[in-house]
Every structure is written in structure tokens, then in C-alpha cells.
Write a structure and sequence with these properties.
Blueprint (H helix, E strand, L loop, with lengths): L13 H18 L1 E5 H18 L4 H8 L5 H15 L7 E5 L10 E6 L8 H30 L1
Antiparallel strand pairs: 1-3, 2-3
Helix pairs in contact: 1-2, 1-4
Length: 154
């Protein structure tokens, strides 16, 4: 009887696939949210969730074990100090994959992978709203300055 395939191959050799997933995991730890293809996001989710579960132990052995895959000391420190502190009480499900529109060049399925508990801190809607308010203040301020300059010229 034919069994299902255990993982996506992503069109790469085993070593290249492992390196790709480790790099995506490192970038996810550093940036808390990354945009990639849907298949890579789903495979990265498997890798990063196992790493976070190991990191929750907080032992030196866990650090060394994770350092085999993530060769960035800054990312390891962030994982053990910030990420584990945020998701320490959660039993799995540390990340979410949000599907996006297809990529323009090749119509590949795109997705965002992010940490669940960091979504409020990096939501783009909040930053856009504040930038619109800042722009409105600048525009109003410039109109006042133009009026003041016009009056002084008279």
C-alpha cells in the first residue's frame, strides 16, 4: 500500500533543503515575520516549532542542539530570551501561516509565517495609521508656515 510523503522536497537536494529551512527559521526568529512561498512556510513551521519546544527546556544541551541548525548567536539569544518568554505557557502552535495572493512573476502561492504572540507588535495597520496622522500634521503645519511666510512678505 502506498504511503503519503512525509515532507515537501521543495525542488532541492536534502542538504540544500535543510539549509533553506534553517535560514528561514533564523530569519523568522530575527524578524518575527517573513514572507515566503506557502510550501516553504509550512515546512519552516515544522522546523521552528520543534526548535521552540526544545528551547523551552532552557538547558545548555538544548542551546547546543539548536545551534547545530541555527548558526547565528544573536538568533539563539533572541530565541531563548524573548521568544520563549512570550510563548512559554503555550503548548505548541507557536506560529501561524497566513496565505497571500499569488506572486506576480510566476503565480507561486505566497504566505506569511509569523509568531502568534508577536502579531500585535508588528501589525502593519497600526503603523500605517500613525504615518497618515503624521502626514496630516505635517501638511497642516506646512500650510500654516506658508501663510506666515506670505504675511511676512507683505
Amino acid at each position: 500500500m502506498r504511503k503519503g510523503k512525509p515532507a515537501r522536497k521543495l525542488g532541492r537536494t536534502a542538504a540544500h533543503r535543510r539549509a533553506t529551512l534553517n535560514n528561514l527559521s533564523t530569519q523568522l526568529i530575527l524578524h518575527k515575520r517573513i514572507e515566503t512561498t506557502e510550501a516553504k512556510a509550512k515546512e519552516t513551521r515544522k522546523v521552528i516549532e520543534k526548535m521552540i519546544t526544545k528551547a523551552r527546556k532552557g538547558t545548555v544541551h538544548a542551546q547546543r542542539d539548536i545551534f547545530k541548525d541555527i548558526r547565528d548567536k544573536k538568533a539563539i539569544r533572541i530565541l531563548f530570551e524573548e521568544v520563549v518568554a512570550k510563548v512559554g505557557a503555550r503548548n505548541g502552535g507557536y506560529t501561524r501561516v497566513i496565505k497571500l495572493a499569488p506572486r506576480l512573476g510566476d503565480a507561486a502561492k505566497m504566505a506569511i509565517i509569523e509568531f502568534v504572540d508577536y502579531s500585535e507588535a508588528i501589525s502593519p495597520a497600526a503603523s500605517q495609521k500613525s504615518s497618515k496622522q503624521d502626514r496630516a500634521k505635517r501638511v497642516q503645519g506646512s500650510k500654516k508656515n506658508v501663510d506666515a511666510v506670505a504675511e511676512s512678505a507683505e
